[in-house]
Amino acid sequence: MSVVEPTLSETQLAAFREQLADGVIDHDGLAADYDADENAYHIETPDRQTTVSADGLETVPAEQAAYITNWYFYTQQVGTEIKQAFCQWLEQSDERPVPDRYAALESGIEREWGQLEITTTVSTDGTRHYEIRHVDDSDAEASALTAHTDPFDARDIGTLDADDRYRPLRTAPSLKQGWIFPELSANGVYDAVEAFYPATVVNWYREGRGELDIDHWQDEQDRQSGIYNLITVLPDEAVDWAAAACCDDSQCLKRREWELSEDEPLDADGGDGVFPCRGPCSMVVAAGREWAKLEREDSQTYEFELTPTEKEQLEAIIDAVADDELDEIREADIGNGANRYRVRYLREKRFDEDGNLSGTPTHPDAHDEGPGDDDHDEEADQN
Amino acid sequence: MQSLVIVAHGSHLNPDSATPTHTHADTIRATGAFDEVRTGFWKEEPSLREVLRTARGDDIYVVPLFISEGYFTERVIPRELRLEGWDPSLWESDGISADTATLVASDIDKEVHYCGPVGTHEAMTDVLIRRGESVTGDPSVGDGFGFAVVGHGTERNENSAKAIEYHTERIRETGRFDEVKALYMDEEPEVDDVTEHFETEDIIVVPLFIADGFHTQEDIPEDMGLTDDYRNGYDVPATVEGHRIWYGGAVGTEELTADVVLERAADAGADIGNAIERVRQRTKPTTGAAGD
Ligand code: SF4
User: Fold this and answer.
1) pLDDT, tens digit, for every residue of B258-273?
2) Is some CB atom of chain A closer than 8 A to the CB atom of B45?
3) A78-87, A229-238, B124-133, range with the lowest pLDDT
């Protein structure tokens, strides 16, 4: 039995009557119809069947009233099918019947969407309330967080990371902490989530219905024009490296569903995100263009003189940069190959005055300048 | 139900690139003229490819927040939005007269109204003038002032210069400023020599650009001699060779640009009530003008 004691308002009863005057209700465990001959309503919920007279609707048992408030909320207060599906997911509606769900909603049902923790609660009339905060602020006192009411504030919160660096990829796991949306409506929670992670809800919804349209890498290649044409020359194996580099869960919270082509899967792991990625994003396409340029170069054999530890040190430096661990290396941790003093020492010892490792020139014949940087002009593009 | 979708370039590098798009979307959202206002970007999210699926209206108006007709408005946007049967000739444009075309977007299997860019709409002239008012803090600025509209030039896109000329001529026709000239970054007459092109002591300089970035914040101020190093900022007005230069930055950041977005949608048939009037009121500069 629910702890929340639902009460049916006049508005809710009027909507219920109006709906049944036109037809039946079959929603989330509630079945109801109106019998004009008897001027009575038949109401059926999983554990109960009642018939009440037209003017006795207020007296339906609390458990059934809960179902009616639930019907009212979802059909009259939540805008679209997509929002309904999302709000139902937020309260795990497929796991509990309405009375149990209301009991759970009383203390709040929490779900994670990327780095968002979304908590749903319910009031006695069935209206849901939503709170959003950063997952890592889960235990923080709400009063210690900056409160926001406008869902579109989410856009600004998501623009810069905690170090004020721009986040061009909104689904990168670098959302900053310290904020809270304490009270959002169903429409508000949808708008805020959309602003944090654009188009993720609609793509998740399409996926749930088996309708997610996927643009694989080769589809993307075929479509590109202008400067992005270059990605057409990126070798297939490089696409795998690119996906492993960019789409890994440590870099992007979307679950990559695109492959090389429909029947050529990539080896790279697509990740475990709740929401899917349906095609290479503009960051990956732009990076792919860069890599396509780089892949036009041939490998060369170089000879370097390094101690075994120095070779391992180079590997440690690459790992530290790739895994974004530089900030964690302590100043005096000289044992770590990527420690700044260690790296400066290596540079002193192994670079010549032109910055060549082991004095080995990059281009022994000095003609080839490597792939030039023909970066285009973003600002001019829009003007 | 009506949806407005503003599409823009965005950037991977510059967080300010999308700011005008968001600001204008907020302004229009506040008028309530549309049931929803969505934004989509070439370089940011949601992508142009996915923006239409975030809109749920029966009548969807897509307005490109771009300055001129060209590669983006004619090829990239229609392709990414999946506008079936798109052809630039549907706009019947001479390079600055694109208005609207109605096509089915296969992503959502619905018709959308694809509008011409904001930069070539006649209402953009008012925004340029408004920027002149806001940068000088004088709602009746004009007498004794020159006005320079700045663009890239024709090197990248012939239509870009057409848009500049068009608004320059329209500002001139108002008779409000003593002199009105079009200047360019990469061709004659060059913005570098701004003071040589004007007799007036006071010159308002406004780039016909959508967003602030490298060109409007670094190149142009340095090229005009407002500052030796953009990082040190510059004065408004700054004195250069005996002229006072009132440099306004990208016109697209002027709040009144929201009005042009509305005009585009209204031209395409959107029912927006008196939203245009309200935006004009709302975005009036509150900076106390001298003598007010
Ligand atoms: S392409 Fe990769 S990095 Fe880009 S959004 Fe999809 S999963 Fe994330």
Assistant:
1) 999 999 999 999 999 8
2) yes
3) A229-238
Res. A125: pLDDT tops 60: yes
**A303 vs B192: CA distance, rounded Å:** 51
Q: Measured between CB atoms, does B224 come within 8 Å of chain A? A: no
Q: Which of B51, B119, B120, B43 is nearest to B83 (CA)?
A: B51
* Residue A281 touches partner B, C-beta closer than 8 Å: yes
Highest CATH level, class, for B2-120+254-282: alpha beta
Tell me the pLDDT tens digit for each residue of A148-194: 999 999 999 999 999 999 999 999 999 999 999 999 999 999 999 99
Q: How far apart are CA B29 and CA A155, in angstroms?
A: 15
Q: Tell the burial category of A249 from Cβ atoms under 10 Å away from its Cβ (0-12, 13-18, 19+).
A: middle
**pLDDT surpasses 50 at A216:** yes
> Cβ–Cβ of B50/A80 closer than 8 Å?
no
Q: ipTM, 2 decimals?
A: 0.90
Residue A234 Cβ < 6 Å to ligand 1: no
Q: Is the CB of A78 under 6 A from ligand 1?
A: no
Q: Does domain B123-253 have CATH number 3.40.50.1400?
A: yes
Q: Are strands B179-184 and B110-115 parallel, antiparallel or unpaired?
A: unpaired
pLDDT score for B289: 39
* Distance of alpha carbon B192 from the chain centroid: 22
Residue type at A212 in one-letter notation? L
Residue A374 has pLDDT above 80, yes or no: no
Distance A51 CA to ligand 1 centre (A): 54
Q: Which domains does chain A have, with CATH numbers?
A: 10-77 (no CATH), 81-208 (3.30.1360.190), 217-295 (3.30.70.2320), 308-381 (no CATH)
Q: How far is CA B166 from the centre of its chain?
A: 13
Structural domain spans, chain B: 2-120+254-282, 123-253
Nearest to A214 by CA among A228, A222, A203: A203
Average pLDDT over residues A297-308: 92
B123-253 and B2-120+254-282 share a CATH fold = yes
